[in-house]
Amino acid sequence: MGNGYVVPAIVVVTLVTVGIGFYGLRLARTTSDFLVASRAISPTWNAAAIGGEYLSAASFLGVAGLILKYGVDVLWYPVGFAAGYLALLLFVAAPLRRSGAFTLPDFCEVRLGSRWLRKLATVFVIFIGWLYLVPQLQGAGLTLATVAGSPYPVGALLVAVVVTANVALGGMRAITFVQAFQYWLKLTALAVPAIFLALQWQADARPAVTPPDGPAFRTAVTVVVEHRATLAFPDGDVREVRPGDRLDFAAGDPVPEVSGTATDAADWLLPDTAGDDDRGLFATYSLILATFLGTMGLPHVLVRFYTNPDGAAARRTTLVVLALVGVFYLLPTIYGVLGRIYTPQLLVTGQTDAVVVLLPTAALGTGTVARLLAALVAAGAFAAFLSTSSGLLTSVAGVISTDVLGRGSVRGFRLATVIAGGVPAVLALNVSGLDVSQVVGLAFAVAASSFCPLLVLGIWWRGLTDLGAAAGVLVGGGAAVGAVLVTVLGPPLSGWPATLTTQPAAWTVPLAFTVMVAVSVATRRRLPADVGVTMLRLHAPETLRL
Amino acid sequence: MAGGEEQDAPERPTAAAPVPVPRAPAPPRRTRIVLAEAARPGSRADRTRSELAQQTRVGETLVQGLVRAQLTLALRLSLLVLIGLGGLPWLFAIAPSVGRVTVLGINLPWLLLGVVAFPFLILVGWAYVRLAERNEQDFTDLVQRPER
Fold it and tell me: What is the pLDDT of residue A523?
């Protein structure tokens, strides 16, 4: 890859992250500073921090890669990732802040007064947190391998160590500054190259994204296959390729059709239609449900709400986050679409996640500007790994330190951070076959089937009981976890079983809600006695000072 | 203090005061000193407040009214999103010709999902924040001036 600017850019991002962390450490004097940033952070800073934390490897790299591969149907990923904040705003933001809960287990205890339900929630927080952390570390390993040619474990370990040290030493106040900085870095890192890419596309006389003869190579390339695939060449030749195979293409050669991707122009350009096969439609709705409802159940998202001074501020912060995230998600589509023109070889290698980092040099040549832009994109990608991992680690470590280790000291938090960071690092080194966006999507599905019903019913329905909540989380969340395990570890499936396990939300979310309501109604006698007081606390504006 | 319609006791501890986090595992966490103080005979506003805090039937009804208003608002706006966005896959599926319509050279589904969806979501969120704050203001007014 020979781009001398990439490694320095990544080093600078890492050093700035650590530097701001230590600056924050100097400011953090009390336990309250350390854990909840003393609740003195303005909504704009807080919103940028939430956005910075939320935009992960899946958003920065994965969405563009999916669009390159599958086309219009996966635009639901960015829409859903943004719409999740609307659901959070509508149903959760202000009451959750007023509940005074710092984590999801806290909320269980505040609302239902049950300590064993708290333990159950802890298990799910840790599972979702780790499920989300592993692909971040893997993305880091793969990106560093792509742009700098380093071995896979280097990137994964680098991110794991930097993030663990930073969270353990700086705590949340530092993290707020770091995250806010990283939101703006990520936005810049996608927006500036996107402008250059669009100008280049204009200068190239606007080549068609979906030419009538299918995508073609613009320049001569040698493709090294990384995933086993079946290629169908336009002359009717069908070839099985294995990892390591080298294929030579001349400029103007059509791109062979790869099994499992939407190489066919109409397939890529147009949405799924009804007819002989409704699995596509089911998967789309499942994805919508998981992303719309999953965001509110992600542990690292909720922790942030505690840093707002009151419920109204929590609402305003969420609205600003929605706007920031919405602006960001306009950009990956541009990369995915232009990738069809400038990097069609990624369709053959299967490494579509790399489109964002490879596109600048592929489209703009190897001049200094192109290499600087490539370095900027790589830095942004690294910011994405660092920030999301930091947020996840903070929340998982917070839960481990209060609920598993059972102490609230700064030292306990540091110990918990090392545990919370160590496990996914080991996992990331040992499993490398997982697909970044798919695993992140599964984490959303688990969150949507466990914590979303718990939060929504807990906030709006007086009739929720501890047994009902536990049953719903166990059945709905458990079903989603089962689907995740089958997808990740089980044998390859096809047809409906594959659709139902890779996109489980459309059946696990309604299941969780139904079970939660039914069991609560059946165990009505267990209603907490102080439910009225709790509802008052969740919904009455703070200005009343009740 | 006496007769002050909307005056607050300046040092009154608040029930919404944050619970310190992290907490020690077992100790009693909340003490509602506020009840004793709010129950003190005083203005009508104070009486409404103590009704809220003591969970009398009146207080309960007031809170339920607020919760219902906020929930109705949230459900209405989600219905809007459900129809506006959630209807799209279904529309594209049953009427494939919609997907072929192009605006400015871009196919309609790409334009709707890639661009228009985001301002739409932000607009709905903005409307919610305004309306939810209005609901809360109505509730505050009701509690502080019950005679109106």
Answer: 84
Q: Which strand (E) or helix (H) includes residue A249?
A: strand A246-249
Mean pLDDT of residues grouped by 10 in chain A (546 residues)? 72 77 58 51 79 81 83 85 90 86 82 84 88 84 77 82 80 65 86 85 72 67 68 69 71 68 63 60 84 86 77 87 91 87 75 79 78 84 82 83 73 83 83 68 88 90 87 90 80 74 85 90 81 80 70
Q: Looking at the complex, does the CB of residue B8 fall below 8 Å from at least one CB of chain A?
A: yes
Report the residue of B51, B57, B118 to disrupt the A interface, i.e. the one with the largest count of A CBs within 10 Å.
Answer: B118
Size of interface A-B (CB pairs under 8 A): 180
CB A287 within 8 A of CB A76: yes
Closest CA in chain A for residue B95? A273
The tally of domains found in chain A comes to: 1
Is A408 within 8 Å of B24 when comparing Cβ atoms?
yes
Across the interface, which of A35, A83, A285 has its CB nearest the CB of B121? A83
Distance CA A310, CA A170 (A): 25
Complex confidence, ipTM: 0.83
**Which pLDDT score is estimated for B124?**
93
**Residue A164 belongs to a domain with what CATH number?**
1.20.1730.10
Percent of chain B with pLDDT over 90: 13
Instruction: Tell me what the mean pLDDT of segment B110-129 comes to.
Output: 90
Choose the closest CB to A541 out of B19, B96, B136: B136
Round to whole Å and give the CA distance between A167 and A240. Answer: 46
Task: Give yes or no for a contact between A282 and B89, defined as CB atoms under 8 angstroms apart.
Answer: no
- What amino acid is encoded at B61 in this protein? T
Task: Spell out which residues of chain A touch residue B139, defining contact as CB-CB under 8 Å.
Answer: 540-541, 544
Question: Which of A272, A326, A460 has the CB atom closest to B122's CB atom?
Answer: A326
Task: State the pLDDT at residue B16.
Answer: 45
Asked if residue A230 belongs to a domain, the reply is no
The reply to whether residue B133 touches residue A271, judged by beta carbons under 8 angstroms, is no
Out of B71, B110, B121, the one facing A82 most closely (by C-beta) is B121
pLDDT at residue B38 tops 60: no
**Domain assignment present for A255:** no
**Residue A333 to residue A323: CA distance in whole angstroms:** 17
CA distance B65 to chain A (A): 11
Q: Which residues of B touch A545 (CB under 8 A)?
A: 8, 12, 14, 16
Who has greater pLDDT, A170 or B36? A170
Facing residue for B99 by CB, picked from A35, A90, A271: A271
Report the C-alpha gap between A315 and A298 in whole angstroms.
17
The answer to whether residue A77 is domain-embedded is: yes
Q: Is residue A348 part of a domain?
A: yes
* Contact call for B71 and A536, based on CB within 8 A: no
- Angle between helices A355-364 and A331-342 in degrees, nearest 10: 60
Chain B: residue whose CA lies nearest to A81:
B118
* Residue A417: per-residue pLDDT: 85
β-sheet bridge partners, residue A257: A232
Residue of chain B whose alpha carbon sits nearest to that of A92: B74
Please state, as a whole number, how many other Cβ atoms lie within 10 Å of the Cβ of residue A151.
Answer: 11
**For residue A260, what are its two tokens?**
């499992």
Residue with tokens 């999801």: A104
Q: Where are the domains of chain B?
A: 35-143
pLDDT computed for residue B28 by the predictor: 64
